[in-house]
Amino acid sequence: MRYLSSIRYIDAVVKAGSIRAAADTLAITSTALNRRILAMEEELGVPIFERLPHGVRLSAAGEIYIHHIRNQLSDMERVKSQIADLSGVRRGHVSIACSQALLPYFLPSQIALYRKEHPNVTFGVHLRDREAAEQALVDHSADLAIVFEPVRLADFMTLIRVRQPVHVVMAAGHPLAAKTSVRLFECASYPVSLPTAPYGVRHLLDIAMRVAGIRLDPVIQSDSFEFLRNHAVAEDILTFQIPIGLGDETSTGQMVSRPIDSRDVPSGILYLGQLKGRTLPVAAARFAAQLTSTLANQFEVS
Amino acid sequence: MRYLSSIRYIDAVVKAGSIRAAADTLAITSTALNRRILAMEEELGVPIFERLPHGVRLSAAGEIYIHHIRNQLSDMERVKSQIADLSGVRRGHVSIACSQALLPYFLPSQIALYRKEHPNVTFGVHLRDREAAEQALVDHSADLAIVFEPVRLADFMTLIRVRQPVHVVMAAGHPLAAKTSVRLFECASYPVSLPTAPYGVRHLLDIAMRVAGIRLDPVIQSDSFEFLRNHAVAEDILTFQIPIGLGDETSTGQMVSRPIDSRDVPSGILYLGQLKGRTLPVAAARFAAQLTSTLANQFEVS
DNA sequence: CGGGGCGCTGCAATAACTGCAGCAGGGCAT
DNA sequence: ATGCCCTGCTGCAGTTATTGCAGCGCCCCG
After folding, report:
1. Whole-number mean pLDDT of chain A?
2. Full set of structural domains in chain A with CATH
3. pLDDT tens, A203-244?
4. B109 pLDDT more than 80
5. Terminal Cα distance for chain A, rounded
6. Residue A43 CA to nucleotide D21 C1', Å?
7. Residues in A touching B72 (Cβ below 8 Å)
8. Residue B51, Cα to own-chain centre: how many angstroms?
9. For A133, which of A41, A97, A193, A285 could close a Cys bridge (C-beta 3.0–4.6 Å)?
């Protein structure tokens, strides 16, 4: 789409932070790029960028304008995918920002399932904490976001919410594995590991401990759920995760998980959402529909 | 905005129905326009238009694309007005589609009030029946719509709803003018005039007559509310209108209006709305805010 | 069965854009 | 302070894209 090149150039300059740097990534000379930007600013009547000694930065007007540009560019993608869709081809790209719990089991199986039907659709999966995931939607670097216990929800349009009770994860031989449901105070008798503070599971546990007056002193803290899971088995300690991240690993025999009694720790909520007010490309919309139905079937809708 | 000329050209072709006709309105040759369209179709990979012997028509892909184009163009207007707004200038244009009742009193006074604050904002007021008003929102020929008893509300985002009880309008000397509220059966004793079928007032009255088993045989039918109002005074017959269209004409002495008892005819509802999912230009948004507050103060919110 | 509308295509003139080289200016390490 | 590097910006020349003028073939309508 050549008539969009000007605004794509501006987008590149914003991303690169300088005209010359952007010109490199765009494979044109800085002269041409500079002139186009000057022309755009001329037409707009106000400067888009502030000129700094080491590059350029968006002006106030530019902030408004770049928003419009990103909207246009990704809406154009949607249009192209819709047009491709009505000529029978199912192509496209789906970009997802999600938290760790989705990576080990849920997303791989869901993407595989979708690509079995539509092999020409490509995927991008980006690990983002709950705040960065929303930011990814805003700057159009992701079509969908899946986050656990999101902080703020401005610009976020929820497609489905499912309950995720916190589970305690342990080696199969652990004493607590004999129970079907575990009380929080029972965990206090054993060594535990916890995710670091910014994560939703930790957040729920912190509140629960404060309310119940129980202290769990973690012998291990980590920001990797995968490490916590594997270490729990290796050293026979407890850790805490949500069921969507525990696919069928718990059925292999090495590792088991048991829900914590909901009187102690309330269920967290997992959100699937998109940018508010945006019409998703066909592929992303269909994949979101698949996720919605799978989530609704596998978990309790909140 | 020169980089938008291509898509503006396409929009013009859609509106004109043929390339040559559009070229005239755009003050360019049909050659240039034709070539740009061919180039766009080349880039898009599919034809935007179907070629007919007497012009062109949108293809299926074109339908999708023109939607995107109109969005882009009017979103650009919004961006420009927002940018103008932050540099302190209050410019812009507000286009309104509304039904007849708004024309005599309400909109003139509201627009005058607004323009007193912002003299650089221009207005377009377009008379549209309740279905055409919504269509005007969809094709971006109007920013706001004010309609009485709308038929369908897809794509319509309601900003405010106010009750509009049907009033009977008559000359000051009419016997019914002595009452503060009028029952429907009382009207049956006098000659009446009615709006024609497609209008909301007529619709409400038709239902009321059927329910109450009363027949009002109109000696005059007209699609002009202004004519009905003036004729009611001239020939001393009754007619029916909603209060928002009766500003202060009724206080000049020539003409009076009295509400019909709500047991007989339920209140109609007047809707102020915009296109769903659209961010309005600053001027339109501010004017809508003014309308909302005025309506909320003068009438009963529904 | 012409006439007038339509979309489309060579060809030449024009307008727009790009790239090269070089300018001034500000931060940074010597 | 002083080169050095990177920044945005500008004349000039070459190149590319766009436009307008005729003119072609087409189909509907009278």
Report:
1. 90
2. 2-68 (1.10.10.10), 90-163+269-298 (3.40.190.10), 166-266 (3.40.190.10)
3. 999 999 998 888 898 888 888 888 888 888 888 899 999 999
4. yes
5. 42
6. 31
7. 72, 75
8. 34
9. A97
